[in-house]
Specification:
mainly alpha; 7 helices; 158 residues; three-stranded parallel beta sheet; Rossmann fold
């Protein structure tokens, strides 16, 4: 951090080798977490990814074409709408606290967040396994189903 703060970059860090984004994505690893740019894993570079698990911490880092390549390769993808939902969930917690004049401490927020994220992951995983669809489709199926059920309960559509 001292080097980055002093120079504004990691380029030229002593004892480190510079690599290209393509080299980074193709490194041997178990888990790859694209966390910065949309569309960074595409049809052109998805085949080079060696990770067994890709966890989308950025919004849309894997293109639909790359998604299909991952499916064929057996890469377990945790889609962005599940993997990086923590920030939106905590924003919801802030709204709930404001509406109810509550003040949760960090431990309360983290415990509530963990409970929701673990439950959501397990719900998506269950659909993935039962319906034999990829995790992105399973997450979308769960989301659409929840919206449809909320509309039905509220009587928005006969």
């Amino acid at each position: 951090m001292k080097f980055k703060n002093r120079t504004g970059s990691l380029a030229g860090f002593p004892g480190a080798d510079a690599i290209t984004p393509a080299q980074l994505l193709a490194m041997e690893c178990d888990v790859l977490i694209p966390a910065a740019l949309e569309n960074s894993i595409t049809e052109e570079n998805a085949g080079a990814v060696k990770a067994k698990i890709v966890a989308e911490a950025a919004n849309g880092p894997v293109t639909p074409e790359a998604d299909r390549i991952f499916d064929k390769k057996g890469v377990f993808l945790i889609p962005d709408i599940l993997c990086n939902a923590g920030g939106v969930t905590v924003s919801y917690f802030e709204w709930v606290q404001d509406e109810n004049h509550l003040f949760w401490d960090e431990n309360d927020v983290n415990a509530k967040l963990e409970k929701i994220m673990v439950r959501s992951f397990n719900d998506v995983l269950k659909i993935h396994l039962e319906k034999k669809v990829n995790m992105r489709l399973a997450a979308n199926m769960l989301g659409v189903g929840r919206v449809a059920e909320a509309c039905r309960i509220r009587g928005l559509y006969p």
